[in-house]
Amino acid sequence: PVLGICGGYQMLAPVIDDPIESGRGRVAGLNLLPIKISFRAEKVLGQPVGTWRGQEVQAYEIHHGIAELDGGIEPFLDGCRQGEVWGTMWHGAFENDGFRQAWLTDIAALVGSDWRPNPDVLTYRARREMMINTLADAVEQHVDLELLLAETRVAGRL
């Protein structure tokens, strides 16, 4: 299985037409998905919301490349899937626990693995919060915050 996200998705096309970011014009892609990639001067910025197999997905996108589907292909998070190849412009989709577990369960089945999600594992948000708190505790313990704040105030006046 192959998953391309944003630039990785664009690389899965037969041809990438990019006179904007790379300035290289038309270059060969990997030809794994029947999509057309062209770049526009306006950057796409967004916080899309969608569903996949009944799982809500909140994500973000930031790109110049535009993917046009070549019809008759399975949709996947505003991108597409063909066989064992998926592509989307959506960053952060795997932060959504239900989606991530459903997608990984499908991949496990596809490759003949008996893997299943562990319901006792911390959610992405809980794990991220724990990591942020651990970092904050380490900074508080090992950094002279008064000195850092004083230096910041002095530097701000220069």
Uncertain segments: none
Provide a count of the helices.
Answer: 4
Class per helix and strand makeup:
alpha+beta
Largest sheet: 4 strands, mixed
In N-to-C order, the SSE pattern is EHEEEEEEEEEHHH
Arithmetic mean of pLDDT: 90
Percent helix among the residues?
A: 25-40%
β-strand number:
10
Percent of sequence in beta strands: 25-35%
Biggest sheet: strand arrangement: 1-10-9-8
Morphology: flat
End-to-end gap: 54 Å
CA-atom Rg in angstroms: 21 Å
Which SSEs are present, and which pair or pack?
Elements: E1 2-5, H1 7-10, E2 15-18, E3 25-28, E4 35-46, E5 49-52, E6 55-58, E7 61-69, E8 74-76, E9 79-82, E10 85-88, H2 97-110, H3 124-142, H4 145-157
